């Protein structure tokens, strides 16, 4: 597929950039510093500020990180690819990534390890923010009926793209039967309205916007009831670090893992505070923030959830060999 060729080029570029950037920088882990006056260790996390970073914000504001001996700073990055060089040369201690790019990076032999999850699926698949939405009046009732249709995604190779394509194939859809179109989500909403696309793979707040315009939800990107890709509570975004940093700083990584587990649990139990963070840190309109479908928040990783998504990536051709989910999750030595 043309899309797979494009994705391969992106991965090669990412690896080249990482190799060049890591030769002249600081030693991995040198971005960490201890503040003896406060008894906490300063660490940085690189990532794009989205719903997935809400547990980090709440971990700061609610004193959860401090409780675990950490002073955490979010460093805005354009995307995971942009964060990797800084992660590898020690300018960042941790980074946030959707699971598919993380898996692809591991298969390209990048020395990374997942520490904890953030955004996760929820029990009721109709309440997932990642949805396939079809144009009103399209007559499309199942994912298999997307064959021969024009479907938009913000990025070929993204988690929702993988979920939708794998579910479509499991539903009996013909390989290469979908005409994929890459476009930003705001343009997808407009495309449904104009009829230039038949369906869109959306996340909040764009899912809500499309449905408010009268378009129709077709299926969860990850959890179609007949052919689920992920289980309820499976994280599809992770916080990761370099293997070198983890080897040199196991106590800090353990503290981060435990703090994120607690921060995610707090976010899951306080949706009002999640909405407040979305308004204050992303600039989202308060009325929109109050209506979006909030994801699950799960910090604990076993590797099984990574395995399920990797298996789907193998099905759709984004991986060439088997993946070991358990080996991708950090565990303390001994």
From TrEMBL:
Segments forming a coiled coil: none
- Main location per the UniProt record: periplasm
Cited Gene3D superfamilies: Periplasmic binding protein-like II (3.40.190.10)
Segments for region (Disordered): 21-40
Name the keywords, alphabetized.
Signal
- Compartment annotation: Periplasm
The record, for InterPro entries, names: Solute-binding_3/MltF_N (IPR001638), SsuA/THI5 (IPR015168)
**Could you list the residue ranges that cross the membrane?**
none
Give the matching PROSITE patterns. PROKAR_LIPOPROTEIN
Domain Solute-binding protein family 3/N-terminal: residue ranges: 42-269
- Residue ranges annotated as compositionally biased, kind Polar residues, are 21-35
Instruction: Give the signal peptide as a residue range, or say none if absent.
Output: 1-22
Family of the protein in this entry = Belongs to the bacterial solute-binding protein SsuA/TauA family.
Q: What is this protein called?
A: ABC transporter substrate-binding protein
């Amino acid at each position: 597929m043309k899309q797979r060729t494009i994705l391969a080029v992106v991965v090669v570029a990412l690896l080249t950039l990482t190799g060049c950037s890591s030769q002249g920088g600081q030693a991995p882990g040198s971005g960490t510093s201890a503040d003896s006056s406060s008894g906490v260790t300063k660490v940085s996390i690189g990532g794009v500020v989205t719903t997935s970073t809400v547990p980090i914000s709440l971990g700061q504001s609610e004193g959860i990180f401090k409780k675990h001996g950490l002073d955490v700073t979010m460093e805005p990055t354009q995307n995971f690819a942009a964060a990797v060089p800084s992660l590898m040369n020690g300018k960042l201690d941790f980074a946030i990534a959707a699971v598919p790019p993380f898996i692809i990076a591991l298969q390209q032999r990048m020395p990374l390890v997942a520490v904890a999850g953030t955004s996760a699926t929820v029990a009721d698949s109709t309440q997932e923010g990642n949805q396939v939405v079809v144009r009103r009046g399209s007559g499309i009732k199942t994912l298999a009926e997307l064959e021969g249709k024009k479907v938009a995604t913000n990025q070929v190779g993204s988690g929702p793209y993988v979920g939708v394509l794998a579910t479509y194939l499991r539903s009996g859809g013909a390989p290469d039967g979908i005409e994929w179109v890459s476009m930003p989500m705001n343009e997808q909403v407009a495309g449904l309205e104009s009829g230039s696309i038949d369906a869109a793979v959306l996340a909040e707040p764009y899912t809500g916007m499309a449905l408010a315009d009268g378009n129709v939800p077709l299926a969860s990107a990850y959890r179609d009831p007949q052919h689920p890709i992920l289980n309820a509570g499976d994280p599809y975004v992770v916080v990761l670090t370099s293997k070198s940093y983890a080897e040199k700083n196991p106590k800090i990584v353990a503290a981060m893992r435990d703090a994120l587990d607690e921060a995610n649990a707090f976010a899951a139990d306080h949706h009002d505070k999640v909405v407040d963070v979305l308004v204050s840190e992303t600039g989202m309109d308060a009325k929109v923030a109050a209506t979006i479908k909030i994801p699950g928040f799960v910090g604990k990783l076993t590797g099984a959830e990574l395995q399920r998504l990797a298996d789907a990536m193998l099905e759709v051709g984004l991986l060439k060999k088997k993946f070991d989910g358990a080996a991708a999750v950090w565990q303390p030595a001994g």
